[in-house]
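Hi V.,

You were right to ask for the full record rather than a summary. Here it is.
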Amino acid sequence: MHALDHTCAVGDLVTLHEQVAPGSSLRVRPRAGVVIAQGASLTVRHLVRGEGVEQTIPLGSPSLVRVEVRRRSKVRRARLTYLRDRGLKLPDLREPSGASAPKPRKRGAKAKAERRARSAARKAAQREDRPPGSAGTLARLRPSDPPFVPPTPRTSGRAFDRG
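Predicted structure:
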């Protein structure tokens, strides 16, 4: 298995481990950034001394040792080129719900009944956690408050409704 068989996507925060040769020695230089485009190459945008820098590396490059996904993000675009206009602001990328990837929602009557049962159980547990006498908005009314009476059409105060 090749080290580049990865599952990074656009919007993910990744660390590129790139092999460089300063002088006569070889070393691996990590660079962290956001993937803004992906295809046959990977375009990563990161900050260097307060400047936004983009680096495009072919995925088959021998200098690319490893791509490590640090955080996954949910985006709705194939390319995040709008990050270039943001200057030094970091992107506000949402994490997907769930651990690593969003699970598809189950469909059908049985799944719907299970969701409703879980919701009812959750609401019942929340009701049990409340102190006695705090059942909702009616419990928050003071005893001196008059009872709430919804307005009728005749008492709504409209000037043209005289009758």
